[in-house]
Design brief:
Elements (H helix, E strand, L loop, with lengths): L9 E7 L7 H17 L4 E6 L15 H9 L5 H13 L3 E6 L2 H10 L4 E3 L17 E4 L11 E6 L15 E4 L5 H8 L4 E6 L3 H4 L6 E2 L1 H15 L3
Parallel strand pairs: 1-2, 1-8, 2-3, 4-5, 5-6, 6-7, 7-8, 8-9
Helix pairs in contact: 1-3, 5-7
């Protein structure tokens, strides 16, 4: 599967760190649960946040406040072979596998996994040199740093606030919505946006601090239904 934008919008469902758990085996099982839930709703890609051993030494985009956030990251960490299995499962169900990487080692994992695109989170957009060898295209959220589109990248308009209140302005091909409701993503598609990213959760408790910015399964289903409906208008 390759990422080629067409008349039908491409929907990325971000599970982020919803698979976090103190039990490493349970993390893997929950991540698979998210893959299966996304497949049932027929999203185009599922995305996770990928961590190995997050710290100021391993991460190229560590910022103030990350010491408090890192416990959840650590509890979402899995080894390379687990991610390989998750990618294989997602692709067997017809979805693209994507992951945001923040560590030098996990960027290399994306290369070794041969992902079809590399998602660059807003906080990492300032450090594109770290993604020099990562698979293309780069899908870059611009909430913290303004980035221009290029021949090997696509920018997703984004707002760093959680939940966000931004609407798609039409300046970039994509929109990464953190509003916590489906309407802004649907509005963007109605105006012609072809690359949509939304956070989602199965159970509210899984979402952790991202809950206010994330969609329920019902909200994600509405986004996918709108994608399919708008495609029939052409």
């Amino acid at each position: 599967m390759s990422l080629e934008l067409t008349d039908k919008a491409f929907v990325i469902a971000e599970a982020g760190t919803c698979h976090s758990s103190g039990d490493p085996d349970f993390r893997f099982r929950r991540a698979m649960k998210y893959v299966h839930a996304a497949a049932r709703l027929r999203v185009d890609a599922i995305k996770f946040q990928m961590f190995r051993s997050p710290s100021p030494e391993t991460m190229f985009c560590w910022v103030d406040g990350d010491a408090g956030r890192s416990e959840r990251w650590i509890q979402s960490a899995m080894d390379f072979h687990s991610w390989k299995s998750i990618k294989r499962e997602a692709e067997s169900l017809g979805m693209m596998f994507l992951a945001s990487a923040f560590e030098y080692e996990t960027v290399q994992w994306l290369i070794d996994l041969d992902v079809q695109a590399t998602k660059v989170a807003s906080r990492a957009a300032k450090y594109l040199d770290s993604f020099e060898d990562a698979p293309r295209p780069l899908l870059i959220s611009n909430g913290m740093y303004e980035i221009g589109n290029s021949s090997d990248s696509m920018v997703l308009q984004c707002e760093a606030n959680y939940p966000s209140t931004a609407c798609w302005a039409g300046e970039h091909p994509g929109f990464s919505d953190h509003s916590g409701a489906p309407w802004r993503a649907i509005d963007a598609m109605s105006q012609g946006c072809k690359l949509i990213e939304v956070h989602f959760y199965i159970d509210q408790i899984h979402a952790g601090p991202d809950y206010p910015a994330s969609l329920s399964l019902e909200g994600l289903e509405l986004v996918c239904q709108a994608r399919d409906a708008f495609a029939t208008f052409h």
